[in-house]
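Predict both folds.
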Amino acid sequence: MIAPRSGERPPLPEQDPFYRRPRGLTRVAPGTVLRSRPVELALLGRIPQRITATQLLFRSNDLHGRAEAAVTTVLLPAGADPAAARPVVSFQCAIDAVASKCLPSYAFRRGARALGSIPQFELVLIAQALTRGWAVSVPDHVGTAGRFGAPREPGHRTLDGLRATLGFLDRPIDSPVALWGYSGGGLATTWAAELAAAYAPELNILAAVLGSPVGDLESTFFRLNGSTFGGLATLCLAGLRRAYPALDRSLREHLDTDSLALLDRAETSATIPLLLRSLRFRVDDHDGSALATLRTRPEVRAVLSDLNPGECPPRFPVLAVQGVHDLIIPCGNVDRLVDRYRAAGVSVHYRRDILGGHVGLGLLAAPLCGDWLADRFAERPLPAGTTRTVPSVAFSLPALRGYLGLAALLLRAAAARPLPAPATLDEDRASIRPNRAALGDLAPTV
């Protein structure tokens, strides 16, 4: 593929031939790379970044197991040797939208007009992962159809994105990899972690970080509907009606005019603008029952009962992070998800943060999450799984060092300067050995 010229405004995915599903898709295995191209990245679409980025179109499956094409963006420090042995992390952004301009494959690009999309702000966190010497795969886990909230398929796209990334980097399929995501990205990471053993057993996933991973999407939706963050409920409903035609028909029949109009606006809006326009807006049905009646209809119950992970615990260690007083994701939902995992024998390290709000905790916990994954890659001993409720994950020297590093990275990004040099080659070699000793009986079967 020919690289686009500097300064060009990239077309939206629905207008971009790169995303187009090729013929014969069902004849190739999931994770097969179908197309690739280099792209330029820019902070907020404006400030060019010295990061090597390649987009891969690959075969995956939707929630019903039907073949589809999906995209991941593979990131390396500028000038890094793609063939060098290094750990790979799949970072699931908090896409939290149905509009294609919020997909990281578009929002990261130079010239992208995606103001208000959350992935643009997560690029600095991903850059910090690159400074550790890792390769990072960033999948469009909601898919080009924007089916935000749909079950299973975010896990398929994440896992197939890892397969495609390892193939592109010419790495063995059992190379050490890890999963990381927060909020909507945490939910996608949860699906990938749960589906890995059955869907992609050949992947050597050492660990997963589940940042505020939703836990129970139905209860979260009804908590948010009519709240300060009611726009998130609207965006989720807009994504689900794309995935479930019966739900779409029921919504069109029963929702009031204002609610349908907001769902239509959600089709093209970035996350933050829709949140600001819909403060305390309540998606409502004709009788004003805030969907209480609609919630009991068989076609709606069928969708709601299909949404929540937790039935297939991961087979590798997990770090979960959640705010105790989170106004978006109820802490109790994540508590129950952790309890289900532990009952199945999963080693879960759970940090409950008292002071951090939902948005702030995603940043505050980044050093903790990165350090924990680095320990897994480096085969450091895995402590027994515990639950700790702390005033703040920010109150530690490692966290302070991490924030200083993030601040330095932000300054570099704003000045379009290259990332600092990653770990040395010897350190890289030490960090990529499979963490079999630490994983014990929870290691995935290859």
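Second protein follows, with its predicted structure tokens after the sequence.
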Amino acid sequence: MRRQLYEVQRAMRARREAALRRGVIAVLDIGTSKVACLVLQFVPDEGSGAPADRPTLRQGAFRVIGAANTRSRGVAFGEVASMEECERAIRTAIQGAQKMANLRVDHVIVGFSGGRPRSYGLNGETEVRHGAVAEHDIGHVLAACEVPDHGHDFEAIHALPVNFCLDGRTGLTDPRGQIGRTLAVDMHLLTINSAALRNVIHCIRRCDLELAGVAAGVYASGLAALIEDEQELGAACVDIGAGTTGISIFVRRQMIYADSVRMGGAHVTSDIAHALRITPQEAERLKTMHGGLVATGLDDREMIDLPSALGGWDHDRRQVSRSELIGVMRPRVEEILEEVRERLDAAGFEYLPGQRIVLTGGSAQIPGFEMIASRFLGRQCRVGKPLRVRGLPGSATGSAFAGAVGLALHVSHPQDECWDFEVPADRQGARRVTRALRWFKENW
């Protein structure tokens, strides 16, 4: 029972460890507007005394040796809509990164923003067997967590122990080795739609790649965009992508909540295209070159040339003021922020010690977004770029690449999850987790 429960996740972790021992692994961020790939080379920490053939898994122990991104195809709302088109986009990104790195990559860790993530807070308690907390005690307390019935259509992707309590002393991140009698845990279970997950993994197989891990895009974006103080005191990361807007809340450096809104920058582009009767490609260009969210008196006089609906520049020439363009874009952005505010209020964000909101993603770069977000969300907001990592090209340092950089940080400094411990299979909690992870053992 125990082997069946964890065989898939542990197999992926074994492949990740094998790739890290060889020193090279790739991360792949599949989005609605682009597919980004980073090839990471892990180098041993000379001052740690670790063997040269085994890299130390800590943040900063790697450098980027290959990076590429391509326009996403066959992806809608962060989910695979056309298998062949998505496969072509993934192959293009992987091949571009491999060419830059001048080597072949077999193992990849994937992050994607779709799947309608749902968060559950679990807790469990057990008695410490031999005075000092050991690995098996962690497994027992995780098995004691009562997993809720989240439906057959959703499967667990993350099971993160976010807080341990030993004899009433709370706030422990790793109680192993400490003396106590009663051990309790708070665990964050994140589920996503099983069909969306199945399609992504199948697409990776079609690309002849070995899957070494799957992570939620909202988790990766938060790791990259939030600084240490924000993760410690409590902050929310709002990743405004093209098809979805992901929301993740961190406190004490742990993700405690995640959700998404199925709207993003592509919907703003669609509004521009419909309102001005132009193609989506031209609408995207107008949004990028002239778009904004806060109009001034000068914007009434700034005129923008629109392409002719008949394809000829001399016929049916039209112009629109920048203030009119802003008037088209702003309602949709306000609608997205209204949905984000409802999610944050439902999660109890107002009770955290720190309440800063960090905006990231490609659409967060629209001029005026930070000001509008602060007004609608009622809290201090800033536009966050991903943390700088060694070797990252300048073209990949913008907020649109927070997901890819976050995956790299996740690989270099992974957090322990439920399936990293030996959970006794004879416990009721373990059987419930078995049902929750049924998809992994039936469809791998």
